[in-house]
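The authors assume throughout that readers already know how a fold can be written as C-alpha cells. What matters is that the chain and its backbone geometry are given together, residue for residue. A single example would do more here than another paragraph of explanation. For illustration, here is how one protein appears when written out as sequence plus C-alpha cells.
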Amino acid sequence: MTAFESFDGDVDGVVIGTSAGGVEALSQLLPALPAGLHAPVFVVIHLPRERPSLLVDIFRPRCAVDVREAQDKEPVAAGTVYFAAPDYHLLVDEGPQLALSSDDLVNFSRPSIDVLFESAADVYGERLLGIILTGASQDGASGLEAVYRAGGWTVVQEPNDAQAPLMVEAALKRIPVDFVLPLDQIARLLSTLDHGGAQ
C-alpha cells in the first residue's frame, strides 16, 4: 500500500520544475526513472543564465534513460529526459516537438517552469504528470494549475522535505494537488511509470 495507489503510471509526458535545492532533489528522482520508460520527461531548473549548464554531464551517468539538453525544433523522443537550456524558455509544441524561446522573463526566470507546464498541458492534457519541487520563487504555481485544469496528475514535494519551501507552498495554495510527497515517495512514484520492463 502506497500513498499513490490510485496512480497507474500510464502517462504520455512528465514535467518537473524546481529551483533552489533542485540539483539535489533531482539527484534522488531522475535515477528512479525506469529503463524502457515510454514518457518523455521535461525539466526546468533555475540556473544562472550566463553560464553553460552542466546538468547533462551530471545526470547522464546516473540515469537508465537518455538525458539531453533541449534543442529547438527537436522531435520529442520517448523515454528521454530533456533539460531546458540556460536563458531559454522550453516549450512543448504539437508533434510533439520542442521549442526554445527567448521571450521575456516569466516570474523573473528564463527558463520558466510556468511556460513549460502550460505548453505541455496543451499538448498532453490529462495524460501529463506535473511535479513541483523545492524552490525559492513562485514560478510553477500557475503552470501546475494548467496541468490540473487539463485533467493531468499533479504532485508537489512535501514542504517540510523541501530545501526551499516557497515554490511548493505557492503551488499548494493554488490548487488541490493529487499527491504531496517527500522525495523518496516521488522517486517511488516515478519508478512506477509505464515502461517496457516488468512492472
